[in-house]
Every structure is written in structure tokens, then in C-alpha cells.
From TrEMBL:
SUPFAM superfamilies: L30e-like. Signal peptide: none annotated. The lineage of its organism: Eukaryota, Metazoa, Chordata, Craniata, Vertebrata. GO terms for cellular component: cytoplasm; nucleus. Belongs to the GADD45 family. It is found in: Nucleus. This is Growth arrest and DNA damage-inducible protein GADD45 alpha. It comes from the Eukaryota. GO terms for biological process: DNA damage response; regulation of cell cycle. PANTHER family: GROWTH ARREST AND DNA DAMAGE-INDUCIBLE PROTEIN GADD45, GROWTH ARREST AND DNA DAMAGE-INDUCIBLE PROTEIN GADD45 ALPHA. Residues 24-103 form the Ribosomal protein eL8/eL30/eS12/Gadd45 domain. Its main location: nucleus. Keywords: Cell cycle, DNA damage, Growth arrest, Nucleus, Phosphoprotein. InterPro entries: GADD45, Ribosomal_eL30-like_sf, Ribosomal_eL8/eL30/eS12/Gad45.
Length: 157
């Protein structure tokens, strides 16, 4: 059920809320990374979604190049799969900042493919993170407004 007021759907509160959700997303990524709850890369994400979609709590899609047709096809397939499996999806602007949060490079020095990032539950127990709850609530509210893949810009540091 969606009970959003006019103030929550637009205006100045909307900008503040977007910034707040961007900060919450950064907190989610920063806390999930040391727990090993991050999957980075389009191919790696597809493998993970195929093996255990119930363990994925959030899917992030990021691009600075909207013209890459192959990447857009991958995104469309991943989005469809996530919608089918009730996985929250966010489009993330500022790929450079996303790479910084995630460490930027793989072991061996090659740059990470941050076009798709999955956040999963830790194996030990269900993850109770207020920042993740805030991001999930934002995704749910956006779906109520027929915005299935909202865009969030990560704040620069």
C-alpha cells in the first residue's frame, strides 16, 4: 500500500530525500563490503543472481555512457530478472564515486567493473541495517509512483 503525501513526491523535500538516500546507500556499501556481501561486475552479478537470487537484497546499475548498447541490453535483462524476483534496483550516477567506495581496483591492479553491483545478505544471519531499510523504503516508494528503477547520485567526498 502506498501512502505518500504530495511533499514526499516532489519539491525541496525530494532533493533532501535523494541526498539522504544517497548517504544511506554509501553506508550500506561501506558496511557490506567488509562482510563480503558485495558482488561487482555484470557477469559476476548474473552468475550470482542465477545461483541464489533470494540472497540478493539490492541491485545497483551504474553507467556514465548511456550509448553502450550491449551494456543497456545487459541492464534490461538484469532489471527484468530483479523485478521478477522482488529485488530492489537503483540506477547510480557517479560511477567514479561508486568505484571509490568499493575500493576501485581488483586484486592485481585492474579496475573494477562497477556497472552492476549486488548487495547480498551475510551468511550468518539476516542483516538488520537501518541504512538498508531506508534504501529499500525509497525503492518501494518509487515503485508506488511507477518509477521502477530510480536514479540516485552518490555524494562526492
Amino acid at each position: 500500500m502506498c501512502n505518500m503525501t504530495f511533499e514526499e513526491t516532489g519539491g525541496e523535500n525530494s532533493v533532501e530525500r535523494m541526498e539522504s538516500v544517497g548517504q544511506a546507500l554509501e553506508e550500506v556499501l561501506s558496511s557490506a563490503l567488509p562482510q563480503g556481501c558485495i558482488t561487482v561486475g555484470v557477469y559476476e552479478a548474473a552468475k550470482s543472481l542465477n545461483v541464489d537470487p533470494d540472497n540478493v537484497v539490492l541491485c545497483l546499475l551504474a553507467t556514465d555512457d548511456e550509448e553502450d548498447v550491449a551494456l543497456q541490453i545487459h541492464f534490461t535483462l538484469i532489471q527484468a530478472f530483479c523485478c521478477e524476483n522482488d529485488i530492489n534496483i537503483l540506477r547510480v550516477g557517479n560511477m567514479r564515486r561508486l568505484a571509490e567506495i568499493l575500493g576501485g581496483v581488483k586484486p592485481g591492479g585492474e579496475p573494477m567493473d562497477v556497472h552492476c553491483v549486488l548487495v547480498t545478505n551475510p551468511q550468518s544471519a539476516l542483516w538488520k541495517d537501518p541504512a538498508l531499510s531506508k534504501v529499500n523504503r525509497f525503492c518501494r516508494d518509487c515503485r508506488c509512483l511507477d518509477q521502477w528503477v530510480p536514479v540516485i547520485n552518490l555524494p562526492d567526498r
